[in-house]
Records
---
Amino acid sequence: MSVTDRLDDKSLFRTDSFIDGQWVSGEGGVDVLNPANNAVIATVGDVGEAGARKAVAAATRAFESWKKVSPFERARLLMNWYKLIHENAKDLATLITLEMGKVHKEAQGEVIYGASFIEWSAEEGKRVHGETLSTPFPSSRGWTIRQPIGVVGCITPWNFPNAMITRKCAPALAAGCTMVIKPAPETPLSALALAELARRAGIPDGVFNVVCGDAPAIGGVLTSSSDVRMVGFTGSTAVGKLLMKQAASTVKRVALELGGNAPFIVMDDADIEKAADGVIASKFRVSGQTCVSANRIIAQPAIADKLVAALEARISKLKAGDGFASDTDVGPLIHMTAVSRVDKLVSQAREQGARIVTGGKSLADELGGSFYAPTLIDGADPSLDVSCSEIFGPVCSVYRAESEADIIKLANDTPYGLAAYIYTNDVGRVHRLSEGIEYGMIGINAPMVGAASTPFGGVKESGIGREGGKWGVEEFTELKYVLLGGVEG
Ligand code: NAP
């Protein structure tokens, strides 16, 4: 079945870049594959460096008028976009499942989650205020204003092809910025469908541009152009570091949402069944391919065996399959190479003496090359790659630590610091552990942390800046101070 056969609104299927309100075809073509069966579902042209320059020029022109549009009018246009996304949620979710394999009900959840940032930002854009300040000069007055930073380059990953765009673009547009977006080559269709809906919503030409193609060429323009005032990136820590270096040449602001290696701490007073449910929700969503996925389950020894048994009972029942099948719990990984990478991590743990409690193998023979069995490992050494790296697959490991000091040490034993989870009913433990671990977001008896109203982001090598809430809008503004001298009576 072709992509358009699956869509109610066939004009949401776009394979050209969107620059200055026009669909622009590129050279050659990058195939977009359905990871569930590796069939080519679309071919998207590469607009390269020239396309990126054209988009930056369009966004620079558009900024001059968009920054002057009142926040109330910007909110009205954003709410048009929000409503169109809701009206077309089914098709947008279909595109997500097709291009990255996500289980369809999770894809529907992503569309609604992504749209919630538009609604929130539309409102919050009206509340971008300055302050009046005291000054050392009796007859002077000082105040601050917040102004949009300018053109923003935005580079996004494939794992949330819709929401990682709206989480940046909604606050940026609400603040009065214009955007040039480079989506991941695996998932351009979601980005281009969002552009089509932004166009229908009445967002002016040049304000929202999507350029597809060669990453270093487009990224080179976005990080080096002095017309681009900020780069917002979501993706791996390795690429984030490279973009940060490149952006240094023009002292651009960077907002980086990078990788994670989340600890999931279960204390001996916790409700073990709830903790096991929490691990499943946090770990196996998107087949473990999320930055906030629980990788390392750290349990106190008194309850560790009970927790392993509760996890085994749940994980061994998870059904892998095509994201469109109604009984699928875990979809494919993004590529066959992702399966090889995950399998290597698990094999290394097995060879080092860890116990593979359930799973631990590719499902190539049963389902196809992009599938990996939901896997639980017990007794992995904390120095192994499976413990130290971002797994990005349906695999988690249980570790044991007794004292709070050892638990904090193990949780912090990683360069990452994005999300962490703590299961306990002891309020003293809540305070000591949440203050002791170095993470940007902590869920206490809660396996999911993201919402439009709250700050999303990490510390250490997990990134710089926050998306969501009032902080998400502020990121896209410059703070300006004005001093009015000599106000005599
Ligand atoms: P990735 O390999 O870093 O790629 C992300 C984006 O960067 C893609 O669009 C990619 O395009 C582009 N890119 C790569 N090299 C580039 C360059 N030299 N110049 C400009 N752009 C470049 O990450 P991914 O595999 O797509 O996504 C998974 C990663 O994202 C994980 O580490 C995950 O934790 C992280 N993530 C973080 C968050 C968060 O909020 N913290 C959310 C979601 C995902 P090409 O593929 O064409 O190179």
---
Amino acid sequence: MFHYFAEPLIIDHAKNQFVYDIDGNEYLDFFGGIVTVSVGHCNETVTAKTREQLEKLQHVSTVFATEPQLQLAKKVASITPGGGALRKSFLTNSGTEANETAILLARMYTGSNEVVALRHSYHGRSAMAMAVTAQSSWRIHDTLPGGFVHSHNAYCYRCPFGLTYPTCDVRCASDVKDLIQTTTCGKIAGFIAEPIQGVGGFIVPPKEYFKIITDVVRQHGGVIISDEVQTGWGRTGNKWFGIEHWDVVPDIITAAKGLANGLPIGLTVAKPEVADAMKGVTLSTFGGNPVSTAQAKAVIDFIDENQLMINAAETGGYLQGKLLELKEKYPLIGDVRGMGLMWGIELVEDRVSKKPAVAETARIMAAARDERILIGKGGTFGNVVRCTPPLNVTKSDVDQFIERFDRAFAAVCEPALRR
Ligand code: PMP
């Protein structure tokens, strides 16, 4: 758990954009509990509504419907892509379960088994979710169920075809047709992908990528599953869901993390005809828990009422500008990419070989902690720093963050490596 540091950092409490350790040290949180604290720690407006629910009803199980569950499902249905095309929700406790549900649904709806996923993806830690995931270190090989093939992702910084956008004609996307025709029976259950790969290192595809793949997948009988566990609820700026930036209306969306600002929740929402294919007993003891769903509804309302999707785009654009200034200063930074308030900084030993700067990334993590900022680490090679602050951070929070982040880089980079 505490793999970055020799000494564990023990957290005592948190408020808004700040986290405090047991010694009372204050940290500026630019990771938001792994892309989960979407509206700030212990957000007062949200917590007041949750507290009210805690005193009213805490549990009855999915055997009964509850008001918070219904209110959440109604709100979700009103904001899904395609003017509310996805209208039926199933609630669980995690992103992993949300994806399990989505894949079962795709298989039941289509009557097919095979699913196309992307290389460098992360979809969870159950056996099936690991089989969908395509980062070797996150899979426990020899235990994984079959039925999944993995296509090339749009990792433009390290193009799998050695090409450059846009002259590449988005070859990684058109390759999906070949993948389906050569490695599956030709009739697939679906395609699952993150609109921006999260654990993979915030890999942002070109704008045509998902549209090309969607057409091919539908021609082969499959549905589109958008895993919005990291990209949902305004994180990418101006839109509720990441997939909306790519001009695709998916058939199923999965979500978790930021939806309930830290309480456990998983959501699978689908077009009605797809959702109705779910047959059999669908009990989840904690799924749709009144407290989690009340908090989730309060989170969405808070994002809506405070226009945090717009703030994510504007403050995120400001953060992007500042990160690009750091890139000018430190050759260790090979790539800065992201959207909204989701930014990855890929570190390389040099910009020609692009060799992943794994040791330096670990040192940046430690230096950031010394500077009292919280950031994340990711990427298939462990060399991408990830910044995902709460959606209500301000430009002055960004200034404070950048000042400290700059000092962290200065501490790690030898003078010769600075411009
Ligand atoms: N999908 C994505 C895109 C994720 O980032 C994660 C978690 N990192 C999951 C699924 C799994 O979610 P959980 O950890 O809540 O099971």
